[in-house]
């Protein structure tokens, strides 16, 4: 049986994390990822003629497995595996597998390395059929491990990994996916870290492009080289060194090599950026026409390096802290010169706490040299509010990424609180300050209390007008809910209790909901056919991309409903359930195989927890084929609940000091039976005996019901289990696609439609209650109550 993709990643991480002991994750990752690398290249290239990676004899993963348990395992891995492999493929900076300061000594290092190798012997980690399309276990497993290592590595070590979500945005807005992209297209990352950002841009090209990267840290640059190989880019050039002090890529003319696309996530506000260089006489002329960055703020040093590294039509994207948008002095001069040159095409403000090395908010600055001199504006996006919490960090959702990319690529200004095209003249009036809040007011409008409405009554017309999106769809609904009061104010035309039925039952609203249901049904029918056509060997990433893009387009420009919220429901379900199902189908086809669930108890022994089926869970079988048996079980459960309630009521009624249960330490069958024997024949205990006897009868009935329920559940379990071997492929498709996937997606999207009506209902009721009692009425009511209190006090003889 194929292992679930999500379970593979999590078990891989948990196993590795358990083994690292006290070692810092930023160091331990080197060992784990080298093993992943050795496993991958052994599976994919061992024995393959003309392979881009050479596997010397005796240096494969199987040879490493043979070393498990050896007393000198670390030394042998270095000499027989890592050394020859690195030499044959010109890899450097490989970790030392015989380092006692990191891995321990004696039996500790033997056990640790042996167990670590065993993790990668998992049969699910077979990369021999790894697909170049990126739809493979390896790429995602690598990203999963890198994200967790970055999260665990602390503030100073998170720079080796750019969150995949941010990389995806940069890759999609830089414009690399055009028809002109080919093998001669060059992409460069001057601070490439582990290479994840560079690879994301390469993937977005939809064609093989040439990748270049430079990384200051020796161990991380080695990791980047392996990452390129792991992601089927063995010819990518990764060099190690300080990019600012010594850029290692030179063009034919001796100057810095220029590229078609440059992306970077440099260290924020690098205080040592000028080490090894005299900025005033930079031989590469990176600062000559713009200004020299401050000695203790290196952000613009990296941005200007990008500008210098771009061809005349090149495009770049750089992640920088927000300070570069508004800081003064030397940085203000550089910013002014960049704007005058027309190089800044766009700025995207991101949420805070996205990056592993810092919690401060960052932005993406888009550089575009093509048509720079004619550029008269900068497109700005404030995406700071769109994210989800993910442990201690924030993370961009799929819908956040898609919205940013869509709005930027279309230059969509339909939501001025999210995006604007800002003219250079306006920027100049603000002294070339690019701070996003100066140009985009993303603050939500305050819900203002209307003084006249509180004094004189009546719902302000402005508040009702603010619901114009609803009235556009249902123009007569407004007239049904509100009536005229005086100019600018309205009254509720229905009783408060009738607001909800008045909205839900209005013909225009019913028509709208029906149209939304029909809209989803249309997509559901089309998608159901597509999903049922899936076969073994399909590419799940392509499947979800086509499915999600179709859903997003299907809900585009539809009133009231947010197309990105609908899209996110599908992506959430994909991440939690549907992805694993599609990978099962890709591996095995439409099979609904059951398996035993075995767990280890505290003593380490296997305990059988029953059976399960991942693609078609038991409940789907029960719902479709054994509904009557399930209903009977439901009736038994309801009867049990009723009996339990009666018993609890009796225990409450007779539980006092003088009650029938007063003499019992515990109220259970044994103690009640023993008490009945004690008082048998005692005429003075007749009432107590009657109560105890009544409780005991309920207890007996409960025991009988529990046995019936257990037997019924066992019978249903056997019926369901026996049904699986009889299922044909058509049955499995119906159960998985219709009963499981589409039913869940339908419930989520219809829940989105429910929120539309609930939001309107809640707001109308809120406005009605807010202004239903004006101040004069309140004053009169207070006066009336005061008079009543005074009258009562007078009757009681109190004279104020």
From TrEMBL:
Pfam families from the UniProt entry: HsdM_N, N6_Mtase
Protein origin, superkingdom: Bacteria
EC number: 2.1.1.72
GO molecular function, one term: site-specific DNA-methyltransferase (adenine-specific) activity
Residue ranges constituting the N6 adenine-specific DNA methyltransferase N-terminal domain according to the UniProt record: 10-120
GO biological process, any: methylation
Reaction(s) catalysed (UniProt annotation): a 2'-deoxyadenosine in DNA + S-adenosyl-L-methionine = an N(6)-methyl-2'-deoxyadenosine in DNA + S-adenosyl-L-homocysteine + H(+)
InterPro entries: D12N6_MeTrfase_N, DNA_Adenine_Mtase, DNA_methylase_A-5, DNA_methylase_N6_adenine_CS, Restrct_endonuc_T1M, SAM-dependent_MTases_sf, T1MK-like_N_sf
Listed Gene3D superfamilies: 1.20.1260.30, Vaccinia Virus protein VP39
Alphabetical UniProt keywords: Methyltransferase, Restriction system, S-adenosyl-L-methionine, Transferase
Domain DNA methylase adenine-specific per the UniProt entry, residue ranges: 135-447
Family from the record: Belongs to the N(4)/N(6)-methyltransferase family.
UniProt protein name: site-specific DNA-methyltransferase (adenine-specific)
Native source organism of the sequence: Massilia antarctica
């Amino acid at each position: 049986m194929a292992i679930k993709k999500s379970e593979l990643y999590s078990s891989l991480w948990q196993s590795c994390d358990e083994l690292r002991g006290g070692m810092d994750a930023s160091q331990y990752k080197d060992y784990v990822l080298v093993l992943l690398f050795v496993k991958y290249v052994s599976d994919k290239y061992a024995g393959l003629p003309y392979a881009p990676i050479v596997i010397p004899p005796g240096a494969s993963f199987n040879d490493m497995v043979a070393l498990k348990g050896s007393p000198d395992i670390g030394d042998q891995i270095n000499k027989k595996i890592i050394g020859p492999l690195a030499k044959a493929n010109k890899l450097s900076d490989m970790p030392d597998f015989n380092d006692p300061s990191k891995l321990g000594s004696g039996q500790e290092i033997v056990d640790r390395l042996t167990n670590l190798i065993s993790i990668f012997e998992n049969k699910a980690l077979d990369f021999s059929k790894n697909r170049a399309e990126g739809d493979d276990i390896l790429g995602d497993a690598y990203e999963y491990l890198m994200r967790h290592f970055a999260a665990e590595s602390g503030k100073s070590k998170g720079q080796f990994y750019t969150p995949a979500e941010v990389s995806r945005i940069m890759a999609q807005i830089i414009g690399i996916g055009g028809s002109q992209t080919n093998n001669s297209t060059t992409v460069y990352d001057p601070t490439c870290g582990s290479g994840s950002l560079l690879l994301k841009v390469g993937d977005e090209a939809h064609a093989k492009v040439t990748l270049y990267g430079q990384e200051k840290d020796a161990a991380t640059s080695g990791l980047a080289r392996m990452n390129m190989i792991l992601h089927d880019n063995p010819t990518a050039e990764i060099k190690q060194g300080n990019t600012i002090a010594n850029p290692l890529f030179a063009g034919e003319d001796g100057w810095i090599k220029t590229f078609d696309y440059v992306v970077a996530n440099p260290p924020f506000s690098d205080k040592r950026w000028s080490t090894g260089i005299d900025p005033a006489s930079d031989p590469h002329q990176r600062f000559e026409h713009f200004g020299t960055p401050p000695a203790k703020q290196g952000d613009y040093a990296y941005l200007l390096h990008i500008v210098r590294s771009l061809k005349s039509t090149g495009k770049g994207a750089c992640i920088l802290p927000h300070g570069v948008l508004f800081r003064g002095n030397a940085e203000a001069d550089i910013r002014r010169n960049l704007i005058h040159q027309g190089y800044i095409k766009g700025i995207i403000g991101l949420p805070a706490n996205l990056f592993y090395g810092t919690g401060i908010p960052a932005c993406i600055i888009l550089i575009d040299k093509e048509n720079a001199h004619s550029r008269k504006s900068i497109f700005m996006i404030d995406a700071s509010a769109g994210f989800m919490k993910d442990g201690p960090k924030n993370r961009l959702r799929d819908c956040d990424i898609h919205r940013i990319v869509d709005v930027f690529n279309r230059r969509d200004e339909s939501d001025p609180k999210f995006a604007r095209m800002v003219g250079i003249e306006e920027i100049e009036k603000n002294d070339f300050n690019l701070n996003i809040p100066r140009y985009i007011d993303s603050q939500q409008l305050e819900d203002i209390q209307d003084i006249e409405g509180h004094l004189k009554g009546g719902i302000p017309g402005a508040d009702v007008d603010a619901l114009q999106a609803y009235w556009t769809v249902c123009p007569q609904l407004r007239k049904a809910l509100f009536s005229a009061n005086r100019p600018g104010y309205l009254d509720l035309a229905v009783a408060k209790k009738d607001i909800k039925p008045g909205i839900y039952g209005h013909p225009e609203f019913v028509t709208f909901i029906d149209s939304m249901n029909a809209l989803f049904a249309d997509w559901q029918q089309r998608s159901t056919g597509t999903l049922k056509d899936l076969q073994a060997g399909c590419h799940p990433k392509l499947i979800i991309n086509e499915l999600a893009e179709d859903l997003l387009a299907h809900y585009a420009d539809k009133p009231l409903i947010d197309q990105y919220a609908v899209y996110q429901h599908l992506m959430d379900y994909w991440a939690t359930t549907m992805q694993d199902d599609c990978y099962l189908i890709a591996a095995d086809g439409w099979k609904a195989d059951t398996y035993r669930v075995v767990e280890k108890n505290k003593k380490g022994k296997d305990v059988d927890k029953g059976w399960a089926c991942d693609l078609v869970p038991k409940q789907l079988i029960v719902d479709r084929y054994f509904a009557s048996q399930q209903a009977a079980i439901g009736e038994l459960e309801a009867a049990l609940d009723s009996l339990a309630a009666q018993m609890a009521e009796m225990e409450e009624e007779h539980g006092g000091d003088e009650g029938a249960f007063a003499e019992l330490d515990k109220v259970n069958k044994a103690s009640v039976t023993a008490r009945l024997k004690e008082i048998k024949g005692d005429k003075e205990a007749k009432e107590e005996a009657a109560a105890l006897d009544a409780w005991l009868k309920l207890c007996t009935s409960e025991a009988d019901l529990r046995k019936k329920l257990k037997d019924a559940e066992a019978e249903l379990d056997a019926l369901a289990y026996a049904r699986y071997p009889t299922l044909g492929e058509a049955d499995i498709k119906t159960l998985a696609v219709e009963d499981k996937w589409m039913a869940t997606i339908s419930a989520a999207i219809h829940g989105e439609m429910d929120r539309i009506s609930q939001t309107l209902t809640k707001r109308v009721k809120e406005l009605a209650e807010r202004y239903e009692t004006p101040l004069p009425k309140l004053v009169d009511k207070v006066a009336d109550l005061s008079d009543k209190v005074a009258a009562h006090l007078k009757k009681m003889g109190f004279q104020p």
